[in-house]
User: Fold this.
Amino acid sequence: MSAKNRRLLLSDLKDPVNFFALGFGSGLSKYAPGTMGTLVAVPFYLLLQPLSLGYYIAVAIGVSLVGIWLCDRCARILGVHDHPGIVWDEIAGYLLTMVAAPPGWQWLVLGFCLFRLFDIWKPWPIKVIDRRVEGGFGIMLDDIVAALFAWIVLQLIVLITI
Assistant:
């Protein structure tokens, strides 16, 4: 088994850094841990949605900045750079995708789908970042750029439909 496929165990969640970086346990999913991590972000988005735009952006940026340290530390603990179970980057990415999204379940779902699309597809430059940028910054940056792409598409759809 390659290091990238190192199986995560419930005991990995005992370390608070891992607990958060592994998305409160969602990263332990055998199937689609990134999607599970993004699902974990949805209730956080719903809690943050009533905030003013400025506060929401501040929280989303804060989650992303904390993620650089968290993901770096977790990767070191696990001994694997960007293990698929590290999903804090997906949580931050979804929150960034949803900046200024209109209320409504359809926008929540569309933002989710767009973020997952860009995070999985990894069009240029996301794939380059994913392969070349190391550490916690690299783990976070490709998802931040995927979130930016998803945000742009989401906002264009908002402009066209509203």
